[in-house]
Design goal:
heterodimer; A: Arc Repressor Mutant, subunit A; three-stranded mixed beta sheet; 24 helices; about 55% helix; B: alpha+beta; Actin, Chain A, domain 4; six-stranded mixed beta sheet; 15 helices; 19 strands
Chain lengths: ~625, ~475
């Protein structure tokens, strides 16, 4: 009789609503657990739940002989603690499990071995030899000490003088700082500095003097005073040991922090803390409620702003008046998808994230009314998502999606697209991590410099120098090298570090400018001479002609000649300056104003020299940048 | 730059910090002296700091069982009411009694003789479990010194003087030949017992109540505040209460009662008292009376839990309606105690509620009450640590076991510092409260990292007793 039978008898609905007793045969055929010695009827009493039968065991738990491990051996072992710093004078003993190095060795033999290796030279008496050297405590490694700054007498006098603090007191402070591991609460608590009466020798000499002399009363130092002094000393000693530019970042931070310690601010802070502590209950409650109120107000304004923004976004929605019928067919949608994909690709697929609402953008012409957009970036993201989801729609239900192309009806493709987009975005983010902004100090420390453009591959710095020469004619090169050798500089730098090459370029620029100028002034001189010679000739000719025509044409001819020269000179100047710099223009202006006489010409030449110089330095600086 | 100690959050937790070297912890107090091995949870030996002195034979006897009425018998205490050792000769004797005679510091038998390493019966298949024969003849001479094997960790009051401390190390090193010594202040150890390194320790002991701020395992000296408001003072308050009650309650110590009959509540006692053919010294009688009062404190006295003081209007009437407690004196007289049992302890909190005391030292001021002490202690330390301390208030000392004590303390503190989170840490187990400092010492002495701190014998010999000032800060 099974429970099923009972169900039948009582006319209860069977919980297996299938055919009546379909499984009886199967059940019996299924391999039942080995319930031997039990009548089938008895077994069936259990119904669907088979009777649990615990096999009877009539023997006791066996002793575990299998491992055959010997009993753990413990021994009272002596140990020292190296953190004590007394060379193992204190030997304490604790129980230790004997280490498993085979059978317990015969004491004498092992000790003898050890001693022969260890204590051969020491000549210790035999009785002491028997004692093994105790091991070091496992806890010695936890002994850590703070490092307080140290200074010598000289260093103190050169760096750490302070009107308020004597050296003795500073020493005392540092000693305390070391003893209490820089726990300022304790240092301040135990700070009890009594200055020594001045002059031990003088004391004995004139006793009555010192007895009447004012013994400086121990100063009451506040914790801020102590901290300020300590940080002052520590920061200065840090800088003495390692100039600031060589410090590592944490070191520099520490240094800066210690330098910027402001006891006054600290005092004020403590005053505030004190006030906070001594608030009454009502005040505390009031403050709390005020804070809550502020929070609520802030939250409300935020929500308000949010709503307003949303509203504006809706108002911003541009209506489309182009025809959307072209997108109402599947081919049109495919087309749209293609264009969207391509535009997305063009935008380097910065991020493809589905927005909270799927909304094709207005310029694509697909209508969308229900969803608002927050910003253009989001808009583009949502385009892509909608495109992909639309794609899925398209293949899944061709007939229905023509009506609702933009609704995110099917969540799975959207989420798949989102996942893909996420993955892509993550990859992009990894490729372009946020570049950390370096501070001035860090740039200095790490030697970071910025370049406009770098050629590919490594280059030698002296090649850069050589390149400078290659633009010049042989004559000029010679002149430049001459000028450099006058300055005792080798034409090729011995050690072209970045700083040296930069300086060299500046120098080189100056030298070329000088050389150019010289060339120009030479030429001008030559021209002036020619002109003068011409003039003399003309004068001579005029002298003859004057007798014939008079002095009318004289000025004209001179002016024309001068103008010529100026134009030529200006051309030269531009050549030298490679058409850069405003100096050239002003110079030309100047010449236009004062055409003619040779005096003005030389002045212009001089002026030009200045402008050329500036132009050259400009150039060199540009090169440097490159 | 500097290698700073690791903050507790990054310290490795997988290392078991214990390393027991069978150090001994000795915690002397005014009422009791506790002694035991470091690493155990309770002191093995707790014996009264009072001891008997037999004037006729000029002999000292120690321990409870020696305190019975006998001729020429005086009760003395080697500590004074400040919990500072006064009689060093007696202190040495009583400590030695506690450590050597009673604690029975084992003079280790050589393993060859202690029977633990006898060869097992051959039945065990001939396994060789023999321990190495460690009999070391060199060690035998050390056995003659009483404590040559055991480092000693002693406790002291936070206000102990340097001279006292030096004396302590001298005794330890010279008389007992300890290999190492350490002196620690009781509030620090009580904080350790509560598992705190930074705490405000309120120790309501027998002769003193003290409040001490502990910062990172060290006493902040400026914060140490103490007052006589402790168990003994409470006893004097109870005496005043007995005096004031109608009819007067007579304290008859147990040893004087030979025979008693039950009487109705409030009726005079019907008991026959013993007569002794020798004079009972007043000190012995006072000691025995104190025991009766102690029982009264334990079973009747309760602290008004607050909120508000007991004297605040309405509270007394309310207390009168609370169920009272009956206390039967050793002579059989008994009485129901109702609101008076709150009044007895109220002086600890409210100086106006204290019973007027006959003696000068029994009078207390506002600053000597428990809230006054805590306020003074906190005011004298840096403001930055105050919140941390108030979040770790450790209550210890057996007088703090009065019912309602921690409730009242909590109310007082939250009223005093409404804007700070106050958290009390009072051990639930009465023995942990009674032996707080000893337990802390037991923890400290069995820590592996502590062993670098001990003042070793060699250091003592090189530097003299002054080293204790330098090291045990």
């Amino acid at each position: 009789m099974t429970s099923r039978d009972v169900h039948d008898v009582l006319n209860l609905p069977s919980d297996h609503s299938g055919a009546p007793r379909p499984s009886k045969k199967q059940k019996t055929s299924a391999p039942r657990p080995n319930l031997k010695g039990l009548a089938r009827e008895v077994q069936n009493l259990g119904g669907d739940n088979p009777i649990a039968i615990v096999p009877e065991v009539n023997f006791f738990k066996k002793r575990r002989f299998a491992t055959r491990k010997p009993v753990a051996k413990w021994e009272l072992k002596a140990f020292t603690n190296s953190a004590r710093g007394d060379d193992g004078a204190l030997v304490l003993r604790h129980w230790k499990r004997r280490t498993d190095d085979g059978a317990p060795p015969v004491e004498g033999a092992q000790d003898g071995d050890g001693q022969q290796q260890r204590g051969g030279g020491e000549g210790t008496p035999a009785s002491e030899r028997r004692e093994e050297k105790p091991e070091d405590s496992a806890f010695a490694k936890y002994n850590v000490k703070v490092v307080v700054p140290h200074y010598t007498e000289d260093q103190y006098h050169s760096n750490l003088q302070n009107n308020d603090w004597t050296k003795e007191e500073t020493d005392y402070l540092l000693e305390l700082a070391k003893d209490f591991d820089l726990r300022w609460t304790l240092i301040w608590d135990r700070y009890d500095f009594t200055p020594k009466p001045p002059g031990g020798g003088g004391d004995a000499a004139n006793g009555e003097d010192t007895s009447t002399a004012v013994v400086p009363a121990p100063k009451q130092r506040s914790m801020e005073d102590l901290k300020a002094r300590y940080y002052e000393v520590a920061a200065k000693m840090m800088a003495v040991q390692k100039p600031a530019q060589y410090m590592t970042r944490p070191e520099f931070e520490l240094y800066e922090m210690m330098q910027n310690f402001d006891p006054e601010q600290e005092r004020k802070r403590k005053q505030f803390a004190l006030n906070t502590l001594s608030r009454s209950k009502d005040e505390a409650r009031e403050e709390e409620s005020l804070l809550l109120e502020v929070k609520r107000i802030l939250a409300r304004t935020e929500r308000f702003n949010e709503e307003r923004r949303e509203l504006y976004n809706r108002l911003d929605y541009p209506a489309t008046d182009s025809d959307i019928n072209s997108f109402k067919t599947s081919a049109g949608l495919q087309n749209l998808l293609q264009t969207l994909m391509s535009t997305d690709k063009n935008k380097k697929r910065k991020s493809i994230m589905p927005g909270e609402g799927v909304s094709p953008s207005n310029n694509s012409g697909v209508p969308n009314s229900a969803v608002s957009e927050t910003n253009p970036a989001n808009r583009r993201e949502s385009i892509a998502a909608s495109a992909t989801s639309n794609n899925h729609h398209h293949h899944a239900r061709r007939d229905s999606d023509a009506r609702t192309p933009a609704t995110p009806a099917d969540p799975t493709p959207t989420s798949a697209a989102a996942a893909a987009a996420n993955k892509k975005k993550g990859g992009g983010a990894q490729q372009q991590p946020e570049r950390r902004k370096l501070t001035q100090q860090e740039e200095q420390v790490y030697g970071v410099s910025y370049h406009d453009r770098l050629g590919s591959g490594p280059t030698f710095r002296y090649e850069k120098i050589n390149k400078l020469y290659s633009h010049k004619s042989g004559q000029q090169q010679l002149r430049i090298t001459n000028a450099l050798s006058e300055l005792d500089l080798p034409p090729r730098l011995v050690m072209p570090t970045a700083a040296v090459t930069a300086q060299f370029e500046v120098l080189w620029g100056a030298v070329t400018a000088l050389v150019d100028l010289r060339k120009m002034s030479d030429r001008l001189d030559g021209e002036i001479k020619i002109e003068e010679a011409k003039k003399a000739e003309r004068d001579r000719a005029k002298g003859i002609a004057a007798e014939k025509e008079g002095g009318k044409e004289k000025g004209e001819g001179g002016g024309g000649g001068g103008g010529d020269g100026a134009a030529a000179a200006a051309g030269e100047g531009e050549k030298a300056g490679e058409k850069t710099g405003e100096g050239g223009q002003t110079k030309e202006d100047g010449e236009k104003k004062r055409p003619g006489s040779s005096g003005s010409l030389t002045a212009a030449g001089h002026k030009r020299s200045a402008s050329v110089l500036s132009a050259a330095s400009d150039k060199s600086s540009k090169r440097q940048k490159k | 730059m500097a290698q700073q100690p690791l903050p507790s959050s990054v310290q490795p937790t997988d290392v078991y910090g214990g390393d027991e070297v069978s150090a001994i912890v000795l915690d002397p107090g005014y009422i009791n002296t506790r002694a035991g091995f470091a690493g155990e949870e309770m002191p093995k030996q707790v014996l009264p700091s009072f001891y008997g002195h037999i004037t006729s034979s000029n002999r000292d006897v120690f321990g409870d069982q020696a305190m019975y009425p006998r001729a020429d018998f005086e009760i003395r205490n080697y500590m004074n009411r400040d919990s500072v050792v006064e009689d060093w000769d007696a202190a040495t004797k009583i400590w030695e009694h506690a450590l050597v005679n009673r604690l029975g510091i084992p003079r280790p038998t050589p393993p060859s003789k202690n029977g633990l390493n006898n060869k097992p019966k051959p039945a065990a298949e001939g396994e060789d479990v023999e321990m190495a024969d460690e009999a070391d003849l060199d060690e035998t001479e050390n056995y003659e010194k009483p404590m040559a094997e055991n480092p000693l960790l002693m406790t002291e009051a936070a206000w102990n003087s340097p001279k006292q401390r030096e004396k302590a190390i001298e005794i330890c090193m010279e008389n007992w030949a300890c290999p190492a010594f350490w002196l620690s202040k009781t509030p620090v150890l009580a904080a350790f017992a509560a598992g705190k390194a930074t705490a405000l320790v309120l120790d309501v002991g027998g002769s003193n109540t003290s409040v001490t701020a502990i910062f990172d395992g060290m006493v902040l000296k400026r914060s140490v505040q103490r007052s006589p408001v402790g168990g003994v003072w409470l006893s004097s308050q109870i005496r005043s209460l007995f005096e004031a009650s109608e009819p007067k309650v007579e304290v008859v110590p147990t040893f004087m009662v030979e025979n008693k009959k039950p009487v109705e509540a409030g009726q005079p006692a019907d008991a026959r008292l013993k007569t002794f053919d020798f004079q009972i010294s007043p000190s012995f009688r006072a000691y025995e009376e104190e025991r009766v009062l102690k029982e009264f404190k334990e079973s009747v006295v309760e602290v008004w839990r607050g909120p508000g003081r007991y004297l605040a209007p309405g509270n007394e009437d309310y207390a009168k309606n609370l169920p009272g407690r009956v206390f039967e004196m050793p002579d059989g007289s008994n009485q129901m105690w109702r609101e008076q049992r709150f009044k007895a302890a109220e002086g600890m909190w409210d100086d106006n509620a204290a019973f007027p005391s006959a003696t000068e030292e029994g009078k207390i001021t506002k600053a000597q009450t428990v809230p006054g002490l805590i306020k003074a202690a906190l005011d004298s330390i840096d403001v930055d640590v105050r919140p941390a301390l108030l979040a770790n208030v450790v209550v210890t000392g057996s007088t703090s076991l009065l019912p309602g004590f921690t409730d009242r303390l909590n109310h007082e503190l939250t009223a005093m510092f409404p804007s700070v989170k106050v958290k009390l840490h009072a051990a639930g187990l009465s023995s942990e409260r009674r032996f707080g400092a000893w337990i802390g010492g037991s923890i400290l002495g069995s820590l592996g990292t502590f062993h670098q701190m001990w003042i070793s014998r060699k250091e003592y010999e090189e530097n003299g007793p002054g080293i204790v000032e330098k090291r045990c800060k």
